[in-house]
Design goal:
Length: about 375
């Protein structure tokens, strides 16, 4: 059984004295000192402070995961890029140290996944709108084990997307993105129509397949927001899958990957700012949490069907895909291939703990 970590940290309240990226060497001096010079330089190249903070925490969490789980000296816990530019950490069993140079020669994997040598720790990071998430698995089963994670924040882009929809229409909005969707997914998105807001209008309502949850007047902001929630959910799921394979959204097989019966996770109960809900292809569980997710009931879409993944006309049964909502405003998707990689709740990290843990590992040498 692999050791799995699922970390989440909110960067928005961090380094309050920083007003622009160039302030970080002073405002975040202890954090910046934990990075290698190339990592620190990459952080400072970001124009917007919010993006720089995301880059800083992403780099720090990757290094922390490598050093903590593998016992690698902090200075050598540096990820490299594989053939697809995906961050990885290679172990060199032929020497007493660890690979810190370029990856070894590539050997073919499955569905675009390639490896350049033993990887005792698989990991993937995503960030958006101030939040960084990391998924990692130690001693994952070889050779086809892989994982990917993505996070989206619908409120961050909703206003811009609503302007496009109101100006050009829903079908045009879907068409702008359909080159990265399967044909069936684009059809389903186009077919999303708002149902009646009240029961007395039911006799005039048409509810195409998969739209029974959209109970709003057509053209209302509520109906457009509901349709966009489906769009964001699909985008997040597909991005996590693509990141699992290590390829980009321009992979030639994108049109052959199909999510079926997807739906946005239900909104969390009013139990606090970190409440979360999820749907999954794996255990089919729906979760509700205050600070972490916990199993609760079976998950289905509005028509009672479970989320499924199909590739080149065949149902995929060896990958578990999960979509969950965090803090109401975020969706997090994970895609995991490999037995023995069991996902649980995300651990919401406190910045003080991250800093103390990282500094202790660095001091250890």
């Amino acid at each position: 059984m692999a050791t799995v970590i699922q970390w989440l940290i909110d960067t928005r309240p961090l380094f309050p004295s920083a007003k622009q990226t160039s302030d970080l060497p002073q405002a975040a001096a202890r954090a910046m000192a934990l990075l290698a010079p190339p990592e620190a330089a990459a952080v400072l190249r970001y124009h917007f402070l919010a993006d720089a903070k995301l880059a800083l925490l992403s780099a720090l969490l990757k290094r922390l995961a490598i050093a903590q789980l593998l016992g690698v000296p902090w200075a050598r816990a540096t990820p490299v890029r594989d053939a697809h530019a995906k961050p990885v950490f290679y172990w060199n069993p032929g020497s007493p140290g660890l690979e810190s140079s370029e990856p070894q020669s590539q050997s073919g994997g499955g569905e675009g996944l390639e490896s350049g040598g033993p990887q005792p720790l698989l990991f993937n990071v995503s960030h958006q709108a101030g939040v960084v998430v990391l998924l990692a698995a130690l001693r994952a089963p070889a050779p086809r084990a892989a994982l990917g994670i993505d996070i989206v924040c619908p409120p961050e882009r909703r206003a811009r997307d609503l302007r496009t929809i109101r100006g050009e229409g829903w079908a045009h909005f879907v068409g702008m993105h359909e080159d990265v969707f399967a044909a069936s997914e684009a059809r389903r998105l186009r077919g999303l129509r708002a149902g009646p807001a009240h029961a007395e209008h039911a006799e005039h309502a048409k509810e195409p397949e998969g739209t029974k949850d959209l109970k709003y007047y057509e053209g209302s902001e509520e109906s457009e927001r509901a349709r966009l929630e489906h769009f964001y959910a699909l985008w997040c799921l597909r991005e996590a899958w693509v990141k699992m394979t290590g390829e980009a959204l321009l992979a030639p097989w994108l049109g052959e990957l199909e999510m079926r019966n997807w739906a946005p996770p239900p909104p969390p109960p009013p139990a606090g700012p970190s409440a979360s809900t999820s749907i999954s292809t794996g255990t089919g569980t729906q979760t509700q949490t205050q600070t972490q997710t916990q199993a609760h009931d079976d998950a289905t879409d509005a028509d009672g069907a479970r989320l499924e993944v199909w590739f080149r006309g065949q149902r995929v049964d060896d990958v578990s895909v999960r979509l969950e909502r965090w803090a109401g405003a975020y969706m997090i998707a994970t895609a995991v291939r490999g037995e023995g990689i069991a996902l649980g709740p995300f651990e919401e990290l406190r910045w003080e703990d991250v800093l103390a843990r990282a500094e202790a590992l660095r001091a250890r040498g």
